[in-house]
Every structure is written in structure tokens, then in C-alpha cells.
Amino acid sequence: MPIHSSQTGNITQVQIEDRLEADTAQEFRDAMAQLADAGKIMLVLDFSKVSFMDSSGLGCIVSALRQFRQKDGDIKLACITDDIRPLIEIVRLNRVFDIYDSVEEAVKSFD
Questions:
Q1: How far apart are CA 109 and CA 79, in angstroms?
Q2: Sign of CA dihedral 83, 86, 91, 97
């Protein structure tokens, strides 16, 4: 699972590709831990290239949110695909995360 990150000011944009599931969960957790340890605690997770997410993936993003909020950071979700939107809504994570249609909107929301 490729994970790419870039910076816009103090906001880190993270693009996840392909699948966020049990097989890729540890890679995602490691990437989030590295960002948190580096002090990059304001994140936008770009889901535009995520084709599948299971309960392990959901657990990963909730765990990351908890980790970043403990450091006074936050995570916002952007570009949720039609493939994973129903899953996020069924477990009501749309009430936990701020979700935006674009990465740009999510970055601006930190202001």
C-alpha cells in the first residue's frame, strides 16, 4: 500500500493508495507513528485512490485520530470514494471526522 505525503504549511497531506485493510494496517500505523513522532500532527488523509477499506482500516484511522489528538493535532478526511463512503457512514465515523470533498477544502479548514 503506497502512502505519499506532502506539506502545505504546517498541514501534512497523506494520500493512501489501493486498499486499507488487515494486510496493510501495520504499514499505515507505522506511517502515522512516524508523522506523529516528527511533530506533523495536523493531517489530511486523501482517500481518492482507496478502492477498499475493512474494519481493520477503520480501526487504523480511529487509532491515528486518537494518537494525533493526544498531541493536540487533528486528522481530517478528504475525497472519500463511493466505494468506502457507505462503510464510514454505517459506523458513523462521519460524526467523528471532519470530511471534505477535496484536499484543498480540508487544508483550508485548519485555518
A1: 14
A2: positive
Question: What are the backbone dihedrals phi and psi of residue 29, each rounded to the nearest 5 degrees, phi first?
Answer: -60, -45
Q: What are phi and psi of 23, to 5 degrees?
A: -70, -25
Contact 46, 15 (CB under 8 A): yes
| Host domain of residue 89 | 3-108
Which CATH number fits the domain that encloses residue 43? 3.30.750.24
Question: Which residue's C-alpha cell is 511533530?
Answer: 39
Q: What are phi and psi of 107, to 5 degrees?
A: -60, -45
Distance CA 45, CA 25 (A): 15
Give the pTM: 0.94
**Span 35-79, pLDDT tens digits:** 999 999 999 999 999 999 999 999 999 999 999 999 999 999 999
Q: pLDDT value at position 40?
A: 93
Give the number of other CB atoms < 10 A from CB of residue 82.
Answer: 6
The closest of 80, 105, 90 to 20, measured between CA atoms, is 80
